[in-house]
Design goal:
Helices cover about 30% and strands about 15% of the residues. It is an alpha/beta fold and about 375 residues long. The radius of gyration is 21 Å and the shape is globular.
Length: about 375
């Protein structure tokens, strides 16, 4: 059996070699010829799986994407070819929640505010948005939930409209990219809606780049709008609108979900799905493969406040590292993908155990995701 995997998918060889020969390739440049006589294809979001790519896939029976989204998979094409496909919902949700938390604690220090005094809107309350909600709640913020498709489908109450959400002090976008239909999210934030956001607001996008009209956002910023921007995702990746970058407070190359645990979890989820597809037992686990973190334990000697939380969060992951690398390299040709490919190891908050033998008031830290 022959299995092609994205070379940036951690532990793919260790896991999928249970079933046959594993061939790692660059996800961005996989060609139709690469899939001749291949039984399974494991990708990430940079690979467009469509008729063109599958033109010579004479044996392909399974496609797995180690990502939440599936907008890069032509589902009609796969169904027509009778190819089983699966994704990894929620695999990097924890990592994205960590990213948003790290970014907001940077801005809170820079702008001298307390998150508990802010109204924060989370737009898109699925797996990823829910992780952000739990962290913001742990930090004492008043969180507003906005998810019109879920409200429509599930009859949920207590949610706000998009217009209400955009009046919040901090706006976090976690919506998938939907290009057509009633709940289309491409350019969800139009020039008109962007202009209505308060000048002292913070806008964070760690979902999909096309959700914000980037050209309209640039025009607005060039006209002097003072909102603070945190952008991990961009239109036209891997070639973002370079003129927009100087107006962004924290800028990164689509790595919010790139914790070691998050990427490995995605690999493991599609590994388990493939084992089930083959009718075999998945006898390997990332828990047996992940390395020990550099710092795995901290003894707590005070009660938690925002400053203490910030210090712990940034001990595990300080988003300013990725922002600095992005700004240094983004003007180089091919750098967006290169930064993702060579991303420095990053762990989730859960990799750090907090030992609280003196029973200080630190429950909020555990709610942030740190281990007991």
């Amino acid at each position: 059996m022959k299995i092609v995997v994205d070379e940036n998918m951690p532990y793919a060889t260790e896991l999928f070699s249970q079933f046959g020969e594993v061939v790692p390739l660059s996800g961005r440049t996989i060609q139709a010829e690469d899939l001749h006589d291949v039984d399974a294809l494991m990708v990430r979001s940079v690979t467009q799986v469509n008729n063109e790519l599958l033109a010579k896939a004479n044996k392909l029976a399974f496609v797995g994407t180690a990502t939440i989204g599936i907008d890069h998979l032509d589902q009609a094409c796969l169904q027509q070819r009778n190819i089983e496909y699966t994704n990894a919902p929620g695999c990097n949700a924890v990592s994205v929640g960590d990213y948003v938390c790290s970014a907001l604690l940077v801005l809170a220090e820079q702008q001298s505010f307390v998150l508990a005094d802010k109204k924060i809107a989370v737009i898109g309350v699925g797996n990823t948005g829910s992780q952000t909600v739990s962290r913001l709640t742990a930090l004492g913020a008043q969180v507003m939930l906005c998810d019109p498709p879920r409200v429509e489908k599930e009859g949920l109450t207590g949610f706000v409209s998009l217009e209400q959400a955009l009046q919040a002090d901090i706006i976090c976008l976690h919506v998938p990219l939907v290009k057509t239909g009633h709940n289309q999210t491409k350019h969800l934030l139009t020039a008109e809606l962007l202009a209505g956001i308060a000048p002292d607001a913070i806008l964070i996008n760690s979902g999909r780049g096309d959700v914000i009209d980037n050209q309209a956002l640039l025009t607005l910023k060039q006209a002097g709008h003072a909102m603070t921007l945190v952008l991990d995702v961009w239109e036209n990746e891997p070639t973002p609108l370079l003129e927009l970058i100087p107006y962004v407070a924290i800028a990164t190359p689509h790595i919010a979900g790139y914790s070691l645990e998050g990427k490995a979890r995605g690999t493991e989820m599609i590994y388990q799905a493939y084992a089930q597809f083959l009718g075999q037992e998945a006898d390997r686990s990332i828990s047996d493969i992940l390395p020990m973190p550099a710092v795995s334990r901290i003894d707590i000697n005070q009660s938690a406040d925002q400053t203490f939380a910030k210090n712990l969060v940034h001990l595990v992951y300080d988003v300013r590292r990725d922002d600095a690398i992005f700004r240094k390299n983004i003007m180089k040709t091919g750098s967006f993908d290169e930064m993702r490919k060579n991303y420095l190891e990053r762990r989730e908050f859960s990799s750090l155990r907090l030992v609280n033998e003196s029973h200080y008031a630190v429950e909020s830290l555990y709610q942030l995701g740190f281990a007991k």
